């Protein structure tokens, strides 16, 4: 049986439809934060490029504070006699938070790694 279709193919077979390409938004300089804490919730935020350094610094400080306090509370809960160790843990967390806060403010350091 001869194929009478214009393109030389049998047009009687159904071709699968391809989905239209999705339009992706162009990349931006915004820093994005996406936090998911199990079933407790979900948070999403965007920070403008000129404030990204402050965003990263604040996240580091908060991480140090939460980790230090959690470690001290856990230490006191497991072994109440180790109050000295819990205090040292809090001091280390404070030192880490101070290093994060003031680490980029020394003279001679420029943003972008040039000196």
Poorly predicted runs of 5 or more residues: none
Mean pLDDT comes to 76
Q: Specify the biggest β-sheet.
A: 2 strands, antiparallel
Order of helices and strands: EEHH
How many β-strand runs?
2
**DSSP helix fraction:** 40-55%
| Assembly state of the chains shown | single chain
Strand order of the largest sheet: 1-2
Radius of gyration, taken over Cα atoms and rounded to an integer in Å? 28 Å
In whole angstroms, how far apart are the ends?
78 Å
Q: Which descriptor suits the 3D outline?
A: elongated
Please outline what is shown here.
The protein is α+β, with helices and mostly antiparallel strands and 115 residues long. It contains two helices and two strands, in the order E-E-H-H.
Topology:
Elements (H helix, E strand, L loop, with lengths): L30 E7 L3 E7 L4 H27 L4 H20 L13
Antiparallel strand pairs: 1-2
Helix pairs in contact: 1-2
Task: Explain what this protein looks like in three dimensions.
The protein has 115 residues and is an alpha+beta fold. A two-stranded antiparallel sheet has the order 1-2. A hairpin with a 3-residue loop joins strand 1 and strand 2. Helix 1 packs antiparallel against helix 2. The longest helix is centred in the middle third of the chain and has 27 residues. The relative contact order is 0.09.
Q: Which terms summarize this structure?
A:
alpha+beta, 115 residues, 2 helices, two-stranded antiparallel ribbon, single chain
């Amino acid at each position: 049986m001869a194929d009478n279709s214009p393109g030389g193919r049998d047009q009687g077979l159904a071709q699968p439809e391809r989905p239209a390409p999705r339009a992706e938004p162009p990349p931006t300089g915004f820093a994005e934060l996406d936090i998911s804490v199990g079933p407790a919730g979900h948070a999403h935020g965007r920070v403008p490029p000129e404030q990204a350094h402050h965003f990263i610094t604040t996240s580091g400080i908060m991480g140090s504070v939460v980790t230090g306090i959690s470690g001290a509370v856990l230490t006191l809960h497991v072994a109440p006699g180790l109050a000295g160790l819990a205090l040292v843990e809090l001091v280390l967390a404070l030192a880490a938070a101070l290093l994060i806060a003031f680490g980029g403010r020394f003279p001679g350091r420029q943003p972008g790694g040039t000196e």
